[in-house]
Every structure is written in C-alpha cells, then in structure tokens.
C-alpha cells in the first residue's frame, strides 16, 4: 500500500466526532473501536433516549465491492438472527455521513479487556466453563445455518457471567463460499473457511488465551503452548483437535461432549 493511499485512507476514514447526529436521530457519544471494515460507536437514540451501537462502514470500503458485500451480509444476518445473547439489529441507515447499522448496545467487557486491561486470570476449570457458555451460543448459530468466522477475544463479551457474541461482519451462511479463500495463508484459511470448523478453530485460540491468563512466564526461550501450559494429555488432545493439528471436530456438538466429559476431572 502506497503512502499516498494510506494518507487518503486516514483522512477519509476519520471517526465521527462526539455530538455528531446521524439520520437526525442518533447522537454519537463515543468511539468504541475501528476494524478493517467498520467503525463502531456508542450513540444515544434521541427518540427513545437509549444507548445503541452504530457500526459505520468505513468510507474507503464503501467504494469496494468486498466492503459493500460485507456490510450487506452483516445487515442480512443480524436481521435474521433472534437470540438474546447476540445484538439485535434495529435498522440500517444511509446518511450523508455514510452507511450505518443500528444495533443493541451490549454493556459488558470483552475478554480482550478482561485479560489485558483488567489482568483477569482464569483457572483451567473456569476457562472450560466459559468455553461451554460460548459453545452454547455458537451452537445455536450453527443450527441456524450461520458461521461467525471471527470468534476472537474482542468479539466475545462477558455481561455479568452471561456470554454475548458481537461483530458479524465476516459471518456467512454455511452454503456460502469465500471467493478470496485461496489468497489466504494457512492460518487465515483455517479461521475464515465457511464451515463450522473455522469457528471451532477460533475457539481453540480463545481457550488458549484464557488458559494463558494464569500462566507465569519462565525464562526467555520461546516454547509452544503444549510445552508451556501445564495441561493434561486429554485436554491437550481436545485443543489439538480444535486447532486441527491432530484430527478435527466435525461439529460444535462433538466438542461440547468432549469438554463436558473432561470438565468433572478438573473439579
């Protein structure tokens, strides 16, 4: 990417300011985050006086077919999904400032913030219990024919012990294909394949983040997670299957069964 395009993207994709009003109804409170395709804000609905989330398609992405396709997919999927642990779509808005999705505001803490900002530490038992809660939500998605494809720690939220999943910008129907899959490296292909296995693979990394939260680094030698984490052989086998290192899980239900069978051992 040339320096000129980077400058153009920086100027064009500058976030909206606090106090900006979208569609005469949504007043920007604060910036939540910026992703590769979207910019997310907390806003006040001036009609209901409730907080909502506005997800704006980056202006530079509005000119790209891939960007418009991602926005349309997220709008379609969120409009279809009815689940108390997934934000509901209120409406989509086309404003002079851009394209926006208006969604529920999930007021909780991402696991990224809990681990890296708040220094939360999770035991093996706690990590597996959290994983099972995430599996419950993901299983419902898979039953509805949807693959999330981005189950990372910034997109999984703890709201008083209840798990919520956000950011469906990369989600797809199971019967869809990703025309760019052949351009990805091996790890990205595993994460982005339009199959349930991609979500299981992502949850393998999610579980490792939880387990590493209570790990104290010893020495400077770089080691694999299998060498560093004091895990039992059965748990290592579960994670290896999640990461498709040795075998793989064909369904999220198969993973759930194995974790449920293993969990009593840790208590």
Automatic annotation (TrEMBL):
- Which keywords has UniProt assigned to this entry? ATP-binding, Kinase, Nucleotide-binding, Serine/threonine-protein kinase, Transferase
One GO biological process term is: signal transduction
PROSITE patterns from the entry?
A: PROTEIN_KINASE_ATP, PROTEIN_KINASE_DOM
Question: In which residues is ATP bound?
Answer: 55
Q: Which residues form the Protein kinase domain?
A: 26-267
MF term (GO), any: protein serine/threonine kinase activity
EC number of this enzyme: 2.7.11.1
Give the Pfam families listed for this entry: Pkinase (PF00069)
Q: Which reaction does it catalyse?
A: L-threonyl-[protein] + ATP = O-phospho-L-threonyl-[protein] + ADP + H(+); L-seryl-[protein] + ATP = O-phospho-L-seryl-[protein] + ADP + H(+)
Instruction: Please verify whether the record's keywords include Transcription.
Output: no
Cross-referenced InterPro entries, in alphabetical order? Kinase-like_dom_sf, Prot_kinase_dom, Protein_kinase_ATP_BS, Tyr_kinase_cat_dom
Protein name as catalogued: non-specific serine/threonine protein kinase
Q: What is the lineage of its organism?
A: Bacteria, Bacillati, Bacillota, Bacilli, Bacillales
